[in-house]
Every structure is written in structure tokens, then in C-alpha cells.
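Researcher: Sequence recovery benchmark, item below. Answer with residues only.
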């Protein structure tokens, strides 16, 4: 979402915020209606981005040769990753999202374990309960990553819908405030 403010404190035009809200809400709706196809399309875009980024990183060596070894390594890795995704985007969609969910699962288990330790050291019982739930949630994601992929896609779609509708309301509020600020004040 946009921050609704520019670098010098001026607000974005309300029409821009309105378009942003409508686009985000539409993407959320598309993700909600067709999560598999949407995820496939996003991974395809990631492949194209990585391929182009690899090319530009390698070209960048000729423009600025400092740290050329790192730039070459990053460019080659981006090219390989982009080509791997573009050569079989369906497999990449499953693999990339599955590994992301597994990573989130392990992070949830680590966070839950840390919270459980704090709860045993004098934290509240509520923290202990939430920590156990976090550990169970992490285990669920690690054991069933494909179900986690579908769930995270659904949650992202809901957040995009809510954020998009919120931006539309914000745009109309900005328009109303701008119109009120331009009205001359009446003196009695």
C-alpha cells in the first residue's frame, strides 16, 4: 500500500490512491477466486524478473567494476534461478511456495519455543498458551506445507481485499478533505 504522503509532506492525489485501492482489491479477488493460477502467474513473473536482473547485474560489471566478482556471481545465480523457474514454472510454483511455508513453519516453532522459555521464566500463562499454539502451527506447516501454501494464499487474498477497500475509502476521504480545504470560510 502507499504511504499516502510524498517525500516533502504533500499528499498523493486522491485519484492515485483510488486506482491503487481498486487494483489491489481486484488482485485480492483474483487471488481468492483462482489461487493456483494467481500463484503460478506470480512465480512466472519472478522467473522473468530474476532472468532480467541477472542480465543487468552482469552488464553492471562493465559500468562499475568494483566488486566485480560478487556482481558476476549474483548475475549468474539470478540467471540460473530465472531460467530454472521459466523452464518449468509449475514445478517452481510448488517448490518455491512449499519451501517458503516450511521456512515459516520452522520460524513459528523457534518463536514459539522462545516464547515458551520466557513464559516458564516468569512470563504470563497467556504467553505460554500462545507459544504452544505457535509451535503447533509451525509443526502443522512443516508437516503439511501444501495445505499451508493454500492457506497463506487465502490469507494474502483477504489482506489485499481489505487493504484495497480501505484505500478506496481513504481516497474518497482525501477528496472530501481537499474539497473542504478549498472552500472559502464564511465570516459572520
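Model:
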Amino acid at each position: 500500500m502507499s504511504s499516502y504522503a510524498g517525500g516533502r509532506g504533500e499528499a498523493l492525489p486522491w485519484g492515485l490512491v483510488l486506482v491503487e485501492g481498486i487494483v489491489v482489491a481486484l488482485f485480492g479477488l483474483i487471488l481468492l477466486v483462482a489461487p493456483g493460477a494467481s500463484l503460478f502467474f506470480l512465480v512466472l513473473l519472478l522467473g522473468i524478473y530474476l532472468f532480467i536482473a541477472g542480465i543487468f547485474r552482469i552488464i553492471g560489471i562493465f559500468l562499475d567494476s568494483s566488486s566485480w566478482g560478487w556482481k558476476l556471481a549474483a548475475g549468474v545465480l539470478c540467471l540460473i534461478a530465472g531460467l530454472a523457474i521459466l523452464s518449468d514454472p509449475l514445478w517452481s510454483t510448488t517448490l518455491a511456495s512449499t519451501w517458503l511455508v516450511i521456512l515459516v513453519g520452522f520460524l513459528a516453532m523457534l518463536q514459539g519455543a522462545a516464547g515458551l522459555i520466557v513464559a516458564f521464566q516468569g512470563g504470563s500463562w497467556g504467553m505460554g498458551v500462545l507459544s504452544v499454539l505457535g509451535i503447533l502451527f509451525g509443526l502443522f506447516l512443516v508437516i503439511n506445507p501444501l495445505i499451508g501454501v493454500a492457506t497463506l494464499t487465502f490469507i494474502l487474498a483477504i489482506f489485499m481485499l481489505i487493504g484495497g477497500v480501505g484505500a478506496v475509502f481513504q481516497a474518497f476521504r482525501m477528496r472530501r478533505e481537499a474539497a473542504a480545504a478549498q472552500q472559502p470560510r464564511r465570516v459572520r
